[in-house]
Amino acid sequence: MPRYGCVNVHASLLPKYRGAAPIQWAVINGDAVTGVTTMRMDEGLDTGDMILKEEVKIRVDETGGSLFDRLSEVGAKLRAHDGGDRCGNGNLHAAGQLPGNAYRQDLQRNGKH
């Protein structure tokens, strides 16, 4: 385990859309805004303390693919900002997520969860 833990880049404004397919669910559900969150990884699924967040407006003609491309750029920028010396020296400040404030869509296969 790395000395100061691991950092993840998640393609939603956590705690919304924890888990699988956050980009696709934001488009499917017609959200006006989504974003990217960097967070410390813990034993849960996308439940770690949040480090940085940035909102991204969803365009009316947005697809999962086009939104993925835009969020990837934002995620790289956030990761560059929270990384480096701040991460290596333990000076990363993070805020916990509120339990029960998450929305996770269960994926279905053949109409079954």
Task: Write structural notes for this entry.
It is a single chain. 27% of the residues lie in helices and 18% in strands. The chain has a three-stranded antiparallel β-sheet with strand order 1-2-3. It is α+β, with helices and mostly antiparallel strands.
Q: List the total number of helices.
A: 3
Percent range for helical residues? 25-40%
Order of helices and strands: EHEEHH
Principal-axes shape call: globular
Please compute the radius of gyration using only Cα atoms. 15 Å
Please describe the biggest sheet, giving its number of strands, its sense, and whether it closes into a barrel.
3 strands, antiparallel
Distance between the termini: 33 Å
Unreliable stretches: none
Average pLDDT: 82
Number of β-strand runs: 3
**Which class of secondary structure composition applies to the elements?**
alpha+beta
What share of residues are in beta strands? 15-25%
Strands of the largest sheet, in order across it?
1-2-3
State the gist of this model:
The protein has 113 residues and is of the alpha+beta class.
Features:
113 residues; alpha+beta; 3-stranded antiparallel beta sheet; 3 helices; 27% helix
List the helices and strands and how they pair.
Elements: E1 7-10, H1 22-28, E2 33-40, E3 50-57, H2 64-82, H3 85-88
Antiparallel strand pairs: 1-2, 2-3
